Amino acid sequence: MVKQNQYFPQSITHPGITLKEKLEELEMGPKEFALRSGKPEKTITAILKGESSITADMAVQFENVTIIPANY
């Protein structure tokens, strides 16, 4: 039997926090990001507020704009 190392963090950061920080770094607002990623501004705002999650498909679209790897 092969043992795998497992990591169980004490807290998990919502992806919206990371996205918000990256948008600030890129000096890009939610409206512009919504246009570039092809998602409604309402969806982007909900993610940034922590009210909505990011799907795998969204992560791939966001990667093209933010250069944050989708698997992150």
Please explain how this structure is put together.
- The structure is a single chain.
- 53% of the residues lie in helices and 0% in strands.
- The protein is elongated.
- By secondary structure, it is mostly helical.
- The chain has a domain at 25-66.
- The chain is built from four helices and no strands.
- The mean pLDDT is 92.
Provide a brief overview of the structure.
The protein has 72 residues and is mostly helical.
Features:
single chain; 72 residues; mainly alpha; 4 helices
Largest sheet: none
Number of extended strands: 0
**Rg of Cα set:** 14 Å
Shape: elongated
Class inferred from helices and paired strands: mainly alpha
Helix content: 40-55%
Number of alpha- plus pi-helical segments: 4
The average pLDDT score comes to 92
Topology order in helix (H) and strand (E) letters: HHHH
Percentage of residues in strands:
under 5%
Low-confidence stretches: none
Distance between the termini: 29 Å
Question: Secondary-structure blueprint of this entry?
Answer:
Blueprint: H1 15-25, H2 30-37, H3 41-48, H4 56-66
